[in-house]
Amino acid sequence: MDFELSKTQKEIQKAVKEFAKGEFDKELAMELEQNHEFPRKIWQKAGDLGLIGVHFPEEYSGQGLGAMEDILVIEGLCRADSTIGSAVSLSSFASELILHFGSDALKERFLPQVAEAKVLSAGAFTEPDHGSDITVMDTTAIRDGDEWVINGSKIFITNGGLAGFYSVLCQTDPEASPTYRGQSVILVEGDRPGLSTSDVGQKMGIRMMATTEVVFKDVRVPAENLIGKEGKGFYQVLEFFDESRIQVAAQALGTAQGAYDRALSYVKQREQFGRKIAKFQVTQHKLADMATKIELARLITYNAAWNFDQGRIDPKLTSMAKMYAARTAVEVCDEAIQLLGGYGYMTEYEVERFYRDAKITEIYEGTREIQKNTIASALLGRMK
User: Fold this and answer.
1) pLDDT(384) > 70
2) How many CB atoms lie within 10 A of CB 162?
3) Tell me, what's the pLDDT at 354?
């Protein structure tokens, strides 16, 4: 068992660190967050450097690498800045559905645009009345000749309104029993007539990313926009979640590490009662606990990514990684604020923003309760 990163992986970490150092700016981050503005210029530069879609094949403008390299990029970006890093990292969200299941024509048309930061990608799964339950879909897609006609709505869609296209989970066979056997994933371009979006409102964190409701009213798309096989959409999305949970775990990991870095720097400089507060045992114990949690989160996240790259689908492991890394991010960011005291509560010192950004990792791509259900199901197996 080798715990050492390869030369290529170390070079990726270095490249991400240098990119973030040159492009990320605290004042800019505060401005973009306040204005709820997507960091478009930074995203485009990341695309120019090949930091988006590193796990895409080279013929689709990727680097032909795997999930492990992908999460190293995500971790590094979010460590440098939780909000900018999350926005850039999730610019390609759900494009893996096309990568793994799409036709050659769809891959050739859309994946290079994502990798080159020309368009944002979005996955449209969650519905207003069903939340985490994707076994039931009210959004329908009815075949009409050479087209699909889509009606319905989706909620809490990352990159909604900005995305060049959406991978939409639809009910294509209303007679299927159970209903999820009649679901399919269909690609819908963002400029199709009948597609509209509306912002969900003010959010606690990740404010540089658009989060919207997406409504489909008689939206027509070509039949060839079907991603994968008809009736297999539910299973395709589940397999995608096995990869996206690792990505969210990496987002949480980077966020936790970034908050820790800032807290560590602060306590080494700040003096109270005539001593650096880093010299107080209570401070040292807090740092030890934070560092241990981060290292454990890193180990399970890297393990999950490595396992995925071996071609193994393991929902239990990826759910464990996502659940633990997300909890670690929340706890570490909370402790970072505590170490900074009143300054930690101030926007200028960043850790309060890291804290707000951390919480979403416990919610999207399945809440921690959903992850526990997945883990428990794998542990118990089928019960009569």
Assistant:
1) no
2) 17
3) 98
Contact by Cβ (8 Å): 203, 211: yes
**Chain Cα centroid distance, residue 122:** 11
Query: Could you tell me which of 83, 93, 87, 91 has the C-alpha nearest to residue 258?
Result: 83
In sequence order, which residues have a C-beta less than 8 Å from that of residue 66 and are 6 or more positions away? 55, 305, 308, 309
Active site residue 108: no
Structure confidence at residue 123 (pLDDT) = 97
Cα distance between residue 34 and residue 37, in whole Å:
8
Burial class for 282, CB neighbours closer than 10 Å (0-12, 13-18, 19+): exposed
> How far apart are the C-alpha atoms of 205 and 244, rounded to whole Å?
19
Pairing between β-strand 226-227 and β-strand 183-189 as defined by DSSP bridges: antiparallel
Q: Does domain 7-115 have CATH number 1.20.140.160?
A: no
**Residue ranges of domains in the chain:** 7-115, 121-233, 235-380
Structure-block tokens of residue 79: 């460590």
Query: Of 20, 214, 229, which Cα lies nearest the Cα of 125?
Result: 214
- Stated as kind and residue range, the H or E segment containing 154 is strand 147-158
163-171 and 120-124 beta bridge pairing: parallel
pLDDT digits (tens, 9 = 90+) for 124-176: 999 998 888 889 999 999 999 999 999 999 999 999 999 999 999 999 999 99
Mean pLDDT of 189-200: 97
CATH architecture of the domain with residue range 121-233: Beta Barrel (2.40)
From 230, 350, 362, 365, the catalytic residue: 365
State the architecture of 235-380 in CATH terms: Up-down Bundle (1.20)
Q: Are 124 and 166 in contact (CB under 8 A)?
A: yes
121-233 has the same fold as 7-115: no
Phi and psi, residue 57, nearest 5° = -60, 155
d(CA 211, CA 305): 27
**pLDDT at residue 254 above 80?**
yes
Collapsing DSSP states into helix, strand and coil, what is residue 135?
Answer: coil
What Cα–Cα distance (Å) separates residue 102 from each residue in 61, 147, 195, 367? 16, 17, 22, 28
Is 353's pLDDT higher than 70? yes
Amino acid found at 302? Y
